[in-house]
Amino acid sequence: EVPSDYVARVRAQVGNECLVIVRFWHGQQPLDNPGRRAQEWWDAHAINIIAMRASNVAFEGWNEVGYDPGSATLYARFESERMRILHAARAHAIVGNWGGTWPTPELWPVYQPVLDAMQPGDRVGLHQYWHDRAGIDDRRCCGGFRTDVPIVITECGRDKVFGLGEAGWQRTCDAETYLEDLRLYDALLAQYP
């Protein structure tokens, strides 16, 4: 559980301009009955969210789910309801939290209602991983996202991707090589306002 003073402690380290994203860990991320599950998510975290909410604080929901048409439909309903609840509490949402460049283009229409419900301060959260330096140039791994919605990359780095690589940069390269990866990835992201 994220303590209610988390944002204040982070602010002391990074200043007031930095976006702070809060993700509550859940061992189970059920998609059945999306409206009820969104309410349960809120009920479990409402006190902390109310204590932490601010113009540059946003809250993530489930992590890396909703990749096939059936689960995408349920996840879109969950995220839409979770966002409605957050907005009623004057809080911001990070929606999605998809790994890689998910969702695939054919699933974006399923998620369009979620994108349409976004308000200023909300963002789409994406994770981008590459197996080696060449993966940074592979749009299936990095940079292959829509640019018509506000996006934040909430996870990135070297990992096992498409059956290649290993989990964690220390298994595939040294620190200087990884720092160069991050510089190249930063240059890629700098192309998108």
List keywords for this structure.
five-stranded parallel beta sheet; alpha/beta; 193 residues; 5 strands; 5 helices
Layout of SSEs?
Layout: H1 6-14, E1 20-23, H2 34-52, E2 57-60, H3 69-88, E3 92-98, H4 108-117, E4 123-130, E5 151-158, H5 175-189
Parallel strand pairs: 1-2, 2-3, 3-4, 4-5
What do these coordinates show?
- Helices cover 38% and strands 16% of the residues.
- It is built from five helices and five strands.
- It has a five-stranded parallel beta sheet with strand order 1-2-3-4-5.
- Helix 2 packs parallel to helix 3 and helix 3 packs parallel to helix 4 (108-117).
- The radius of gyration is 17 Å and the shape is globular.
- The relative contact order is 0.12.
Main structural class: alpha/beta
The number of distinct helices, counting runs of at least 4 residues, comes to: 5
**N-C termini distance:** 33 Å
Radius of gyration: 17 Å
- What share of the residues lie within helices? 25-40%
Provide the β-strand percentage band: 15-25%
Large-scale geometry = globular
Largest sheet, order of strands side by side?
1-2-3-4-5
Order of helices and strands: HEHEHEHEEH
Task: Give the averaged pLDDT, no decimals.
Answer: 92
Brief account:
The protein is an alpha/beta fold and 193 residues long.
